[in-house]
Write a structure and sequence with these properties.
By secondary structure, the protein is an all-alpha fold. It is about 80% helix and about 0% strand.
């Protein structure tokens, strides 16, 4: 088997409709909605409290609560596709 064939077999292949659905989910997940902003504020408050108390465990907990993963995945998705419009939004 050639290297190109092995690489294609190892990576999942998405159809057109699956790519469109993935793009829509990424665009929706990275939007600034009320729940995202509330979780971000709570996470910031928790991290601030952890810094004031000099508690590494509380700071790590704040990182776990922070809803930053979806926008980061969305940015990576946009960069992988070369979609500048989605990357800037």
């Amino acid at each position: 088997m050639s290297e190109d064939t092995e690489t294609k077999a190892a990576l999942p292949q998405l159809g057109r409709e699956e790519r469109k659905e993935l793009h829509a989910r990424m665009a929706e997940g990275g939007a600034w909605k009320a729940d995202f902003v509330v979780m971000l504020c709570l996470s910031s408050a928790l991290a601030s409290f952890g810094l004031l108390q000099n508690s590494g465990a509380v700071i790590i907990g704040a990182m776990l609560v922070a809803p930053l993963m979806t926008p980061l995945i969305g940015a990576g998705h946009a960069l992988a596709q070369g979609n500048a419009v989605t990357a800037h939004s």
